[in-house]
Amino acid sequence: MNDRIVELLHRNLQEVFGEGDATRRRAAIEALYTEDCVVYTPEGALVGQDTLDKFAGDLRAMHPHFAYTAHGEPQALHNAGRLAWGSGPRGEAPDYTGLDVIIVRDGKIAALYVFLDSMPS
Length: 121
Description:
There is one protein chain. By secondary structure, this protein is of the alpha+beta class. Helix content is 34%, strand content 45%. Strands 2-1-6-5-4-3 form a six-stranded mixed beta sheet. A hairpin with a 2-residue loop joins β5 (96-105) and β6. The longest helix has 16 residues, at 2-17. The chain is globular, with a radius of gyration of 13 Å.
């Protein structure tokens, strides 16, 4: 299970939030998330794959040139994992940083908690 959690953390960062192509992003969401997933952000809770897809697409559209970079190694514990990350123009210091915490059910992300260290401008 730990290997799957590490895989989910990395793939979520790149293939969901870092993906600019809507078709590939949607395929990743379906592969990585449960249908009834919940994503908790500072702005509120997002329920379901459709809502997550819109949120990730809107976020990507606001910063199309930003890349997501893992900061350190992910950690897995039982059915949960965490990964620190930064986002900003590729090759530059991140404009903002955060921490993703996931809860996994049946090999997919059932819940994602997004903690932001600094808010995007």
